[in-house]
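Below is just one:
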Amino acid sequence: MSSLAERYNRARATIAARGFSADIQTKITLVVGATTSINAAILAPTELQPRVSAAYPFVHGQYFRELEFASLLARVTRWSANSAIYAEAMRLTAPLWGAWWRIQSPLGPVMDVKSAYTALALGHALLGRVRLTPVIPEHADDLDPFVTALRRIEQENGRMIQTQIRLLKDAATPLDVSERERIVEEQQSAVDSVFLKFLDWLGD
């Protein structure tokens, strides 16, 4: 089985050979756009809470950044006319949407502490495990709007990850440490599974 580094190398070599074609840009945007949309959906309920916690300024800022990133990618992408790409992207990202739906039941993150912590862990995994700048070839045009957008999104995600780590460690929750660690690992594994398949697809 190929390692993460090998998958990155294959995807980067494909992009170096073909350039950031409409097909490649569309693949990236559909998957990254799904991750930003899921993260925004995770954070959205916090915007409606009547009480404001110490974490609210971070959550508020991150929520609107995710919306910004989704709209930014949609604007700078040269969209493909190949309908098969859209169908495959839906198949690839379905497990991520499934993870989000499972968090919503039975009570959802607003009413259930385990669901709330799981939502935070899923958001953290989406930010930390889905990294696209390693697929950008060395001689890519840094002034290309698509390349610029990918770099900016990853730079901002790096800042947000640090705060999320703090929230995961210091969250006021009755869950013990082993349960927290299990939840974090479970969400990371789910995201990793999708992302590795995406890199394989990108390298085809």
The chain has seven helices and no strands.
